[in-house]
């Protein structure tokens, strides 16, 4: 009887942790820039994934002005740099056990155009590490965000789950050595 009880309790514990690990479904989000000059409104087309539209607005006295739009949805968006118009987006929770070339990790955008994007496999190969859970995996830890270096030069910094710091030049989205 004790074995049966322990088996049932183990099953219930593991089932509960699996349900707690489920990803949240997509919802419309608004993300503001650090100083409030711009904001992003991202609206999904599906319950999961990155299908949808994102609109970047400049905040005006009377009325906000649409700066540009992108054909993707992201829950995690950062705006910064000169004029706070550089957009950094992170991919959704990636399902599965590990990085793949077609799994989006991070991307850099400006004026409606892609500067550079990276897959989860590319970031893992650069040393980000990987953290695997029951339903998904992650390659990034802390998002340190935009940092001014000098003049009009900014970088965006993020930490891999390995603890390695990645510094991206926001002028082109390239990784600094």
Can you walk through the features of this model?
The chain is mainly beta and 177 residues long. The chain has one domain. Helices cover 14% and strands 44% of the residues. The protein has two helices and 14 strands. A four-stranded antiparallel sheet has the order 1-2-3-4, with no helix packed on it. Strands 5-6-8-9 form a four-stranded antiparallel sheet. A three-stranded antiparallel sheet has the order 7-11-10, with no helix packed on it. The N and C termini lie far apart (61 Å). Mean pLDDT is 88; it is low at 5-19.
Described by strand count, sense and barrel closure, the largest sheet is:
4 strands, antiparallel
Distance between the termini: 61 Å
- H-E string: HEEEEEEEEEHEEEEE
Strand order, sheet with most strands: 1-2-3-4
How many domains, in number, for the residues? 1
Number of strands: 14
| Rg estimate, integer Å | 19 Å
Number of helices: 2
SS content category: mainly beta
**Which runs of at least 5 residues are low in confidence (pLDDT < 50)?**
5-19
**Dominant shape:** globular
Mean pLDDT: 88
In short:
The protein has helices at 2-20, 120-125; strands at residues 29-32, 38-44, 52-58, 65-70, 77-80, 86-90, 94-95, 104-110, 113-119, 131-132, 136-138, 140-150, 153-160, 165-169. By secondary structure, it is mainly beta.
Topology:
Layout: H1 2-20, E1 29-32, E2 38-44, E3 52-58, E4 65-70, E5 77-80, E6 86-90, E7 94-95, E8 104-110, E9 113-119, H2 120-125, E10 131-132, E11 136-138, E12 140-150, E13 153-160, E14 165-169
Antiparallel strand pairs: 1-2, 2-3, 3-4, 5-6, 6-8, 7-11, 8-9, 10-11, 12-13, 13-14
